[in-house]
Write a structure and sequence with these properties.
By secondary structure, this protein is an alpha/beta fold. It folds into two domains: about 10-30 and about 385-484, Immunoglobulin-like (Sandwich), CATH 2.60.40.1180; about 30-380, TIM Barrel, CATH 3.20.20. Helices cover about 25% and strands about 25% of the residues. The protein contains ten helices and 23 strands. The protein has helices spanning about 10, 60-70, 115-125, 140-150, 155-160, 190-210, 220-230, 255-275, 325-340, 370-380; strands at about 15-30, 35-40, 50-55, 60, 75, 100, 105-110, 125-130, 175, 215, 240-245, 300-305, 345-350, 360, 365, 385-390, 395-400, 405-415, 420-425, 435-440, 455-460, 470, 475-484. Helix 4 runs parallel beside helix 6 and helix 8 packs parallel to helix 9 (about 325-340). It is globular, with a radius of gyration of 23 Å. The two termini are about 15 Å apart.
Length: about 475
Amino acid sequence: MGAAVPSTATKLFPPKMAEITVHADQVLGDISPNIYGQFIEHLGRAIYGGIYDDHQRRFRPDVLEKVQQLRPPLLRYPGGTVTKIYHWKEGVGPDRPVRKNLIWGGNDNNHVGTDEFMRYAELVGAAPFLTVNMSTGTAEEAADWVEYCNGTDTYYATKRKENGHAAPYQVKYWGLGNEEAAKEDAGTLQDVQDYIKRAWYYAKLMKLQDPSIQLIMVGDQEAWNQQVLRELHPICDYISLHLYASSKPGDPASLFTSIAAMEASIQKLAAQIKALTPAKVENFSKWYRFPSRQQPVKIALDEWGIWEAGGQGTYGLEQRYTWNHALGVAMFLNIFQRNAAVIGLATWAQTVNVLAPIMTNETTSICQTIYYPLALYRRLCGTRSVAVTTTGADTLDVSASTDGKTLTLAIVNRDSSAAVTLKLTAKTTGSWTAHELTASSPEAANTLAALSTNVVSYKQRALPAGAKTYTMAAHSITILQAKI
């Protein structure tokens, strides 16, 4: 591939040489489109002041447009930890009580509830993913929610129709609780056996309402996961894993070490799944009156993101993300692709204002730096992960994918001193196209105080026919594509 025009930094520091070899015959797994999901919770300004203007009682059009451009295939709601005190029946119909948010503070007027969430998911093109209350709620309440969303002629389905929604919502993904092992939270299921017993009961009543739903079980540490997988695997479609990276004070590059460690956590849980759960469930009793899971157990990264100390807003969750954080997001997405065989879904926590790619004030909104890799990967990366090896530069993080027609390389260059020239070994039939994201510096950030300034630059260019090298800018994210 043809090299980019050298910068001053490149003249002073000759580019490092690295070689990327794609092993297209080594398929790592199918990449679920659901790894590009998003998450909204009744927390701070995530919903009210985020996706929703409570004064005008409507979705904010400026935010809606930005979320639509992310094209999230999946949207998780209503939490998160708030699930432990959330009662869905208070958020449907004309009479909606104002309740104190016992988890995150403030009041919730329930103006956004199930039907509003479903409408928002429809507007952004996302499948809904609901998490049920296993702490202050009941299994019957959870089953009623399934009936309200997916039923046709019964009591709660009729209530849905009375509320203006004739067709079932057909919600497929249901989380059985959230971080139930956390002793500080308002739940009572910190003992894994208590969780397992309750989860079986919830699953029975919910599956009897709709046998086709898929269940996401709560994961935690290794010992917890071991028991959940052993005892719940016949009905466990997914086990959750939450990953939040951060950097050490004064050391932005330590973020990359934090993120790299996340891959080991994924692989450890993947090994447990392989050891403890059969790919296919055998001898599942007919007297359950609903089927067992139909596919191998997968990991649900239903909360992932970057959570630094010192943020603003509720619990410091309104974060200013720099270009360094955007590089980290791309690293995360590369990890997801490399482990595609076991990752079934992932939802970035969260969408607006809270640990978010989109920030608002009362009148306008911006896209933070992390928005751009989330959007670019969603738009360009393929549906099947293939093996790739890199030699000559430890500053690169790489994944490779294909859709059967196009080979895609996603490359993060973390290097701060010089560009990296790549020698690519791959069988292709056409020229490469480069999609490059850069910023003025690793510390650069988009802010509401400078609305007209976007620190992120995007460039797309076709490279000369037959070119075999490509020079990456320092601190850059590049997606290279060629026909195969």
